[in-house]
Write a structure and sequence with these properties.
formyl-coa transferase, domain 3, 2 domains, 13 strands, elongated, 17 helices, alpha/beta
């Protein structure tokens, strides 16, 4: 779908690489620009590792760098910056996540590049954005989870603020960045006018608070930590069965009515405290113990089977290995082997969006550092072997 779109990717760590991986999955030619000798910092974020020797890759790096070509350019040299500018002139999209002002200092800022490429879509991803009093702060996911309010609503009611188990603020920023880039590319194709996209981890994480933030803006009340409960829907949480916990997500009054039939308590529907969802939210402290006493009497699998048979959302609580080996996950092709991987087979998570008739695909495994430097500079800039050898000797590539 994005065949013919070249993305010059100066980003590293998670938010930017996750964004550009999405674009690569959708067919874009993603050229990952890395520092010679070291490359993206996540190359060193192990164990676990895949491969050995110079071919070793960290699992972290593998997770977000498929469908890319790696080019090493030393941006501390004028020649390296000049090569980067020429690549940018021949690209439709630039993505970067340096500190505010660093790309401009390299002569690679949006104003520098759009003078020669007016249709360029340029996306900057930072912790706090290009403006505001925190613009110069480093912005790692953990800090953003804390400052966005996310940690304040995560965890048990009587426990401490808790972070989400993955770097969710980076992932959300990458998703917002990818969607904005797609819209800007569409605009550029129609008008030949590029866009500058300022994507902030803090902005996008606050936006991702959705109903919780809206609850506060409407009510003025500070959202509490509710553990595995939902602030606006009851019953919508984990319950302990006879053997283990399971999840029940009863999202409507009709579903609650069917739940009452399954558990043999139709009288609950006649109780004004539980007849409607607003009433159940108000009286959750009275309803939940009643349900807990019932669910603990049978195994989780029996409850889940009965609930699903009544079209009530429910499911087991999986470990990561259990989730990845679930037959439905396997049938959807989410776990796959990277193509054209030298040596030991590499399993990775594939594109999560099914597109037809032009499916997202994994065409390239995560690249070794600088694996495609000569290939890209020959193909895109027309450099010859002698010039490449000279640049390599000078430490430019």
């Amino acid at each position: 779908m994005l065949a013919g779109v070249r993305v010059l990717d100066f980003s590293r760590i998670l938010a930017g690489p996750f964004c550009t991986m999405i674009l690569g999955d959708l067919g874009a030619d993603v050229i990952k620009v890395e520092q010679p000798g070291t490359g993206d910092g996540t190359r060193q974020w192990g164990p676990p590792w895949h491969g050995t020797g110079e071919a070793v890759l960290s699992a972290y790096y593998i997770s977000i760098n498929r469908n890319k070509r790696s080019v090493t350019l030393n941006l501390k040299t004028e020649a390296g910056r000049a090569l980067a500018r020429e690549l940018a002139v021949r690209s439709q999209v630039v993505v970067e996540n340096f500190m505010v002002g660093q790309m401009a200092a390299f002569g690679l800022g949006y104003d520098d590049l759009r003078a020669r490429n007016p249709a360029l879509v340029y996306c900057s991803i930072t912790g706090f954005g290009q403006t505001g009093p925190y613009r110069d702060r480093p912005g790692y996911d953990y800090v953003i989870q804390a400052m966005s309010g996310l940690m304040s609503i995560t965890g048990e009611p009587d426990g401490p603020p808790t972070k989400v188990g993955v770097a969710i603020s980076d992932v959300i920023a990458g998703l917002f960045a990818a969607s904005a880039i797609l819209a800007a590319v569409r605009h550029a194709e129609r008008t030949r006018q590029g866009q500058y996209l300022d994507v902030s981890l803090l902005d996008t994480q606050i936006a991702a608070l959705v109903n919780v933030a809206s609850n506060y803006l409407v009510s003025g009340e500070t959202p509490p930590r509710l553990g595995n409960q939902h602030p606006n829907i009851v019953p919508y949480q984990t319950f302990r069965a006879a053997d283990r916990e399971f999840v029940l997500a009863c999202g409507s009054d009709a579903q609650f009515a069917r739940l009452c039939t399954i558990i043999g308590r139709p009288d609950l529907l006649a109780d004004a405290r539980f007849a409607t969802n607003p009433a159940r939210v108000e009286h959750r402290e009275e309803l939940i113990p009643l349900l807990e006493a019932i669910f603990v009497q049978r195994p989780a699998s029996e409850w889940v089977e009965a609930l699903l048979a009544a079209d009530i959302p429910a499911g087991p609580i999986y470990s990561v290995p259990a989730a990845l080996t679930d037959p439905h996950v396997q049938a959807r092709g989410l776990v796959m082997e990277a193509p054209d991987m030298p040596g030991e087979a590499l399993r990775l998570i594939g594109p999560p969006v099914q597109c037809w008739p032009n499916p997202a695909t994994v065409r390239r495994p995560p690249p070794a550092l600088g694996q495609h430097t000569d290939e890209v500079l020959r193909e895109v800039l027309g450099l010859d072997g002698e010039t490449l050898a000279t640049y390599r000797q000078q430490g430019v590539i």
